[in-house]
Amino acid sequence: MKKRITSIGSNNKKTSLLLLIAVVTFAAVIFPAFNQSSEAAAGQFYNENNVLEDLPDVMIELTGTETTLNGGTTDYVTYYVSHNISYTSICSIQGKVRIIIDDGCTMTVPNNSNGGVQVKADSTLSVCPREDRTGLLYSTGGNTIKLTGAQSTLINVATIKNDENSYVGRGAIAWTVSLSNISVTNYGIIQGPNGFYISCFVVSTVYNYGEIIGTKKSGIYDPGVVYNYGTIEGADSGIYSAGALTVTNDGTIYGVNYGIMCTSNGGIRTFINYQNGTIEGGNIGINVETAGAKIENDGIITGSNIGINNGYNITLINNNTINGNVSLAGTNTISFGAGSKINGNFSTTAGYKLTFTGTPGDDLTYATITGKTDLTNDISNVFFGDDWVVPPVLHARDKIVLIGGGTIANSPASKAYSAGGYDFDVSVENGNKLVAIPRLIEIALKDSDTSAIFDSANPYDFATETQGYTPKVLNVTVTNIGNAGTGALSITTAGANKEDFFVSLNSVSNIGPGENYYFTVTPSAGLSPGTYTATITVGPAAGNAKAVNSVSFTVSFTVNSAGPTGKDKNYIIEATSDTGSTITPSGEIVELQGATQNFFFKAKDGYTITEVMIDGYISLTPAEIAGGTYTFTGVMADHKIEVKSTLNSGDSGGKGEKGKTYTVTATADPGSTITPSGKVSVQAGNDQAFTFGAKDGYKITAVSIDGIYSLTQAEIDSGSYSFTIVMSNHTIDVKSAIYSGGDGKGDGGDGMLGYTDNSNVIDNSNATGNSGFPWWIIGLLLLLILAVLLIWFFLFYRRYYDVIKVGTSVTIVGKDRAHRKSRYSFKVEGTYSEVSYTIGEEGEKRIIRQTPNGDFSIPKREITDTVTIVAH
To answer: Out of 172, 193, 295, 604, which residue is the most buried by the measure of CB atoms under 10 Å away?
Structure first.
């Protein structure tokens, strides 16, 4: 019996080995990709800058059993919450740790007053959500997260909640007493009995761009510095403070009772409310119970009852709106900007300084106070800022309304001022306006249908001076309020002392309808003690036939021989500070004889006040400098106060300690270099430059500064970055990627990031390793090479196996076998005495010998025609 061979045998060991290699390689390359694509970790998350980015290449999945999460020194180590987990023990954060919580998942931490999660010294915890922002870090009580070490940092982009039923000492976030340089940045939601609970007198900073909610007490309880661009809300107060406090607000701060509540325990408080900022309390907008506070409002401050309460020796700058009463005690420095408004009553005790700034609109109104204004019979300290400008629309008889809208009690005495190019009187008119009346002389034709003569400058008393004075100037405006030209006018001086006054103009050719003309009157210099008077007359010149009225006014000037005796004597206090300090108020401060003036000074960040000089020769003691204030009482001469400072070079040992250095940590991935690298020590206040570049075949993709700020492409292309005036620790990190468009720049360095525990590692690299090398390309190349080898084998080198039974024959058709390049092998089943084959129909019989493997083979060179095999 003959049969045609068409099947491939299964007992070729080499073939099996090659197939095994193919299967293993295929599984190693392809299966991880399928596994990866099925993980919930694929996708994006909101990073520390609140920007969506792809999930990190390597993440460690949390199980709820960890007691410490270790992070990197410069780069984040990322941990992932893929399902609901609960911790029974406190979890500590050491280094830079990022926790990403998947959408719909909750990470529950223990109810513990010491914090379910503790962030240790010099460590950073970043809590990030996935795309839908539904991940939650939660505790039923205690403090959800507690920052327990100096220079610890929290960045929250997700939701952190605490359901504590009692607010005392509890919050979603808490600080430990007496730490320094604590920082929280919030882009998400923080909610608890107190959103934050921060122990008193802690140097802490909160940057809020999201929502902070205190369900029992305060949104933030006892912070140091708050920058708010989002929303802070509290069941009692938006912010509660028993210590020094600085708030910069461009968002919303709200409390059911107080927008901001400050007790009498703390230090200096500063509140800056920007144009888009709102500070609102159901009862009181801002409650200040300590002296020296500063409130600068360009937005809206609202209290249903009181806008600002218990202000004592404060600086209030209002350029927008305060809703509610404002009551100030002590010696206050007050500034009302043009267009500002208080919807309520306003009162201040004597000794205040009231300054008007800006330029009012066509209504000539600076400030509106809808309720009662009480200026305590004292407007001696009314001033006008450097930007005070009389509007160009000012006409004769116009009055500039400094405060209007309600009523003014305790009408103060009038006083003459010079500002904006005008001399004018300030007085209360009809009990409902504080007005500035420019000194004007108005001339009109007698036959005009308008009131003929108006003189607001009669009489005019120059301020009393002592010998050695500098003469003051009276500016006089002559306005034609008629409907025809005046013709020629003359300006004459009469009286016993007419030679003691200089008049800048003695004639005018003509003043048209509605037009103005100006001249000045100045007392002579060097006059002896006494009183000097003269009469100035403006009227038609000789030969002017037009019916023009004449108007006269009297000027008076008194000179004292020794010491000021007049109550209108002014003195100047010059207040200056250097670049490392501030003083309030600053510049040239004009004070009346016998007045009292307070000054407040402080150092800027990174500086220490070393000297405060009074009048150039008196230096305050260290204790007085530490007090931050100095008062001139009973002013009887000009004075100076000068604040000097030096750059801090100390550590915690105290201000001014020498030798302080900071560390700039410079790192680069394997595809890039940075010089210098590693931990670079920098002397406080010095600059430090770094240069970076890409290795061959790579391109710089990102340069991160302090883990927050990323350089622009132009800055990256420059290849360098400098830290200037270094006053804290910093980091700079260079990232790169393989670049197929050409060679990268730079050389040097090598680096790697590794973890000691990979038992829960999620590989989310999309077939890209941790170092960024595309290993999937090598895998595909191996598969391709293996496929070629297999094809080559089966086409050219494979052997055909079959089993031939004794007493039978097998025919191999020559045309099927002639092109094969491998020998033909087979086995024989049964007892045989001879195995032979013939080539072709008439071929010679050839005996085949058994090989050591127990099979039989026909050499490849003989498979050129039909082969017949016989075993018998």
So the answer is: 172
